[in-house]
């Protein structure tokens, strides 16, 4: 059962896509970082102000691009990406209160 401060992964991605259509809108994102080549993690990364972006040619990897979330850090203007399943928390306007992302929730509940 979904908790009050929890959001499904699908709903989180859909809301991020909707915000892309609103000028000046952004969201907060916390995700686990990893290095696939070294098979290590560097802990969590928090990006206070980010926005979805279009994929770039340099983003292409051996894995299906549907598994990645391309975003831009609006504070540093850096293009970044992460595995969608490594997203742990998101915050949306107007409050930006962080919600835990549950990738294993049953969408029908």
Provide a descriptive summary of the structure in words:
A hairpin with a 6-residue loop joins β6 (87-91) and β7. A 7-stranded mixed β-sheet has the order 1-7-6-2-3-4-5, covered by helices on one side. The chain has one domain (6-102). The model has no long low-confidence stretch (mean pLDDT 85). 11% of the residues lie in helices and 43% in strands. With 109 residues, the chain is mostly beta strands. It has one helix spanning 9-20; strands at residues 6-8, 27-35, 40-52, 68-73, 78-83, 87-91, 98-102.
Order of helices and strands: EHEEEEEE
Largest sheet: 7 strands, mixed
Q: Indicate the mean pLDDT.
A: 85
Helix and strand composition category: mainly beta
Q: What share of residues are in beta strands?
A: 35-45%
Quaternary assembly: single chain
- Low-confidence sequence ranges: none
Helix content: 10-25%
Radius of gyration: 14 Å
Distance between the termini: 7 Å
The total count of strands amounts to: 7
Number of helical runs? 1
What overall form do the CA principal axes indicate?
A: globular
In the residues, how many domains can be counted?
A: 1
Order of neighbouring strands in the sheet with most strands: 1-7-6-2-3-4-5
């Amino acid at each position: 059962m979904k908790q009050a401060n929890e959001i499904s992964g699908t709903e989180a991605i859909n809301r991020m896509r909707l915000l892309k259509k609103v000028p000046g809108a952004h969201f907060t994102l916390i995700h686990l970082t990893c290095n696939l080549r070294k098979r290590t993690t560097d802990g969590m990364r928090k990006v206070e102000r980010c926005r979805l972006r279009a994929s770039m040619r340099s983003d292409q990897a051996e894995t299906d691009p549907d598994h990645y979330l391309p975003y831009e850090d609006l504070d540093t203007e850096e293009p970044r990406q992460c595995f969608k399943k490594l997203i742990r928390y998101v915050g949306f306007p107007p409050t930006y209160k962080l919600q835990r992302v549950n990738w294993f929730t049953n969408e029908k509940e």
